[in-house]
Design goal:
432 residues, alpha/beta, 5-stranded parallel beta sheet, 5-stranded antiparallel beta sheet, 8 helices, 30% helix, elongated
């Protein structure tokens, strides 16, 4: 936290009446307000809004200068309604009389109600609280509530008020930067938690299969997208693998992907597979999604304990690729592809039996791998282009992690930069 600036002495007062009038064409309160930032080394002129109802006349604010010796502009408002109209983007600091009444509150209510109201009205502006001489306790409480500093009404002078304004603006900027840093740390922690949920450690103890995976978020992503995968081995020796993609890229979609992955793992370990498993996952999605139009594609594979055959279910998802020694890599059959989860109530997902053989590599992927563009035109890589790419990379001797890394890097290179969609790829290998 920024260290509070020690008060050199109480800041003096002057009589009222010399503040320039508010401009007639000041924007209305409905105008959007931007983040208030000030660089005292630049040409930006500091601006002060004084909110004070002085029964003796218009408040006098002495000539105020910024650190470069330039005048600080002053506007005055006699009440909060007028202040709201004058609170435009070019105001950097507010000098608020704590004795002003807050809207809708009686004298017996919170004595800092007017300050709380202004802080809600202008959360990005620096605020200096103005209080009666000797009322230091109220001033200190104002700082605890959110003001940058407090001043005594009858002890102001131009030099110290100018300095207080500059310090308040800089302190507010420092507080804002620290808040953003803290928010960034929280977002990073959220990313890591989501990543652990979306990209889990596979449960393959006791299996001879080798596992590799790669995940790459799409561009301009604050959080991970909706791609997810998992691999587990059940007590009977069957290895179950899954990869899926929730439509969209926001935090809600990422969280839904985590929920679906966890649900898949729990249901698989409980003994469900095929159509029964996907039907239950669809119920989970329908209950947990934030919008009825959200859906998820899914590919599940269950590999028999002997490793030579597998069951395949596709829910609107691209078919896996299989590579065997002496044969070109190809896609597994996908003519019985069922609909994506969340599209059709009561849908069915046929389970296809496929022969794998004694030695093979099985690659599951999301559509981010095939939907990148090829060159400067509008043509996309597609499944055929991906199959050709993997065949060439296998012929170059690439396997496991190296194969996946080369595939994702080449797709990105063909696209001319970062991919618009997230990419998840997993690979299972069995040696004969």
């Amino acid at each position: 936290m920024p260290v509070p600036i020690p008060r050199q002495r109480a800041i003096p007062a002057v009589e009222s009446g010399q503040a320039p009038a508010a401009p007639k064409d000041a924007p209305s309160k409905e105008a959007p307000r931007k983040e208030v930032t000030v660089d005292n080394n630049a040409t930006t002129q500091l601006s002060l809004l004084v909110i004070e109802d002085d029964p003796g006349g218009t408040t006098v604010v002495p000539e105020l200068l910024d650190s470069a010796g330039k005048p600080i502009r002053v506007r005055t408002a006699r009440n909060l309604t007028e202040a709201e109209r004058l609170l435009t983007d070019d105001v950097h600091c507010i000098l608020l009389d704590l004795a002003l009444p807050a809207p809708g509150r009686s004298d017996g209510d919170d004595e800092l109600a007017v300050l709380r109201h202004v802080l809600e009205l202008a959360p990005r502006h620096a605020v200096l609280a103005l209080t009666a001489s000797g009322d230091a306790e109220r001033g200190a409480e104002a700082v605890r509530v959110g003001a940058q500093d407090y001043l005594f009404r009858d002890e102001l002078d131009g030099r110290l008020l100018s300095r207080a304004i500059r310090y308040a603006v800089e302190r507010k900027r420092s507080d804002t930067a620290e808040r953003r840093l803290a928010e960034g740390r929280v977002r990073a922690q959220e990313n890591r938690r989501l990543e652990r949920g979306l990209l889990p450690t596979p449960l393959l103890e006791g299996s001879s299969l080798r596992f590799a995976a790669r995940y790459r978020p799409g561009r301009s992503r604050a959080l991970l997208g909706g791609d997810f995968y998992d691999v587990v081995r059940t007590p009977d020796g069957t290895v179950h693998a899954m990869i899926g993609d929730v439509c969209g890229h926001g935090p809600d979609e990422a969280a839904l992907g985590v929920e679906l992955r966890i649900a898949w793992r729990a249901l698989t370990l409980a003994g469900l597979c095929g159509d029964e498993l996907l039907g239950t996952l669809q119920e989970v999605l329908e209950h947990e999604r934030s919008d009825d139009e959200i859906f998820a594609t899914l590919c599940t594979v269950d590999i028999a304990p002997d490793g030579r055959r597998a069951g395949l279910c596709l829910a609107g998802h691209p078919s896996p690729l299989v590579a065997r020694p002496g044969r070109p890599a190809r896609l597994l059959p996908y003519d019985n592809n069922g609909p994506a989860l969340g599209l059709l109530p009561g849908a069915r997902w046929p389970r296809m039996q496929v022969e794998l053989g004694a030695e093979w590599s099985l690659m599951l992927y999301t559509d981010g791998l095939i939907e990148g563009r090829v060159g400067e035109g509008g043509e996309r890589l597609g499944q055929d282009g991906m199959v050709a790419m993997i065949r060439r990379q296998l012929s170059e001797g690439l396997r496991g992690e190296a194969l996946l890394r080369a595939a994702v890097n080449e797709v990105r290179s063909l696209n001319g930069g970062e991919l618009a969609d997230d990419v998840a790829v997993l690979l299972l290998d069995r040696e004969g």
